[in-house]
Each structure stands twice: as C-alpha cells, then as structure tokens.
Specification:
The chain is an alpha/beta fold and 231 residues long. The chain is 38% helix and 26% strand. The protein contains seven helices and nine strands; from the N terminus they run βββαββαααβαβαββα. The longest helix has 22 residues. May form an ATP-driven Vi polysaccharide export apparatus, in association with the VexA, VexB and VexD proteins.
Length: 231
C-alpha cells in the first residue's frame, strides 16, 4: 500500500501557521489510477511533494518508500547546460539503464529532431516539458503523480505521449491532481476531492465533480461577499 496517514503539512506566514493539509488520510494500491479534483492553491503541489517523498509531513506518516512515486513532467533535474541527448543519457546512467535505448526513446517521443542535440537552455518551455516527460516515463518507479496536467503541445504530440503513458500504466499506478474533471475521466477509475486540507474519496466521478463544483460555488459566493459594500 502507498499513501499518507493522518498527515499535516503547514507553512509559517505573517499571520501564523498556514495549514495546507490537515490530518489527511490517503491510501491506495500501487496499480490504482486515481483522480483528485483540487482547486488552484488548495495544496496540489504540497501533496505531490509529500507523496513523492521530496518533503516530510509535519505530523503523520508516509506509507511507502522514497522513489515509489515520480512527479510526471517535473523538470528540475534537467541541466540547461547539457543537450537534450546528454540529459537523457545522464539520467539513464544514474539509474543504471541502457543509454542508447533510453536516448532513442526520448528522441522518438519528443520528436525534437535536430534540437535534441542542442543545449536545453535554448529550448522553449514546451520543448523542455516534453523532454522531461519522456525521461520520467523510463525512470524506475511504481506510480506516477501528475500535478495539474499530463500533456502539452499539439494534438499529435499529446496522442504520442498518451500512448506512451498508457503502455507504462499497464504495470504502474497513477495519481492526477487537477481542477479539470475531463482529464481524470480519461485516465482514472477512482475519484476524490481535495477540500479544506483533506482528501475525500467519492463513489464516482459524478459525485466528485458535484462536490468540487459546490465548493467552488461557495468560494465564489464568499469572495463576492468580501467585496460587497454599502453606498
């Protein structure tokens, strides 16, 4: 099993501790594909970092091992002074993988063509994201975590990436954190909502969407009231 038990994560602010996750429980099997609806600023990135073992909770327990989960599309490991090919081969070497096969896969999936041998510092944001996605797909892990989105680029690029991910998901799990119900409908079979620092699992996507939309509606009402005034 993998996840969090009674985990709290907070950050200090001028107004005191800001609680992002509040004694939340989230446990799953390694082959499950779970979509969690979450509004911007609700703690998606904080949750991703905890589940990937990059941060430790202030309270509670992390179930699993560091390296079990990989943040899909994260590109902080890519070195801008190296070419795309050099970055791919470097990561293959670090994990003891075949450099030729690894690099060939990244070249084929990204279709960067001649740019593959250019320095990453010359890449656009989208090109760098595509390279990171390809590299992450081949790194050893037991499940992927997507924070916000899965793919970028034109339709052809997204179809290639979707097919490559589908192959990996035959043996690996997936967690998608997003505000877009359509994204998790395509890739997940269990659904939840991140609200008020806790994850609530739902019976189906319809229930999760209804709960999420109700929360957004309530937040919009609160914001409207905050800006109201008497004339």
């Amino acid at each position: 099993m993998f996840g969090l038990l009674g985990c709290t994560r907070y950050f200090e602010s001028d107004k005191g501790p800001r609680v992002v996750l509040d004694k939340t429980d989230f446990v799953m099997g390694y082959h499950e594909h779970i979509g969690i609806l979450a509004a911007p600023g609700s703690g998606k990135t904080t949750l991703t970092r905890l589940l990937c073992g990059l941060d430790a909770p202030d309270e509670g327990d992390f179930i699993g091992l560091r390296g079990d989960a990989l943040p899909l599309g994260a590109n902080s490991f890519i070195l801008p002074g190296l070419t795309g090919e050099e970055n791919a081969r470097m990561m293959a070497s670090l994990y003891g993988l075949d450099g030729d096969e690894f690099s060939h896969f990244c070249y084929q999936l990204t279709q960067l063509e001649q740019c593959y041998t250019d320095r990453v510092s010359e890449y656009s944001v989208t090109m760098k994201t595509h390279l990171a996605f390809a590299i992450n797909l081949l790194l050893p892990c037991r499940l992927y975590i997507a924070d916000g989105k899965l793919y970028t680029g034109d339709n052809a690029t997204q179809l290639r990436m979707q097919a490559a991910l589908a192959c990996q998901l035959q043996q690996k799990g997936l967690i998608v954190l997003t505000h877009n119900p359509r994204l998790i409908k395509e890739h997940c079979h269990a659904f939840g909502v991140l609200l008020h620092g806790k994850i609530t699992m739902c019976e189906d996507l319809a229930q999760a969407t209804a709960l999420f939309e109700q929360y957004q509606s309530n937040q919009a009402t609160i914001q409207t009231e905050d800006y109201s005034f008497d004339i």
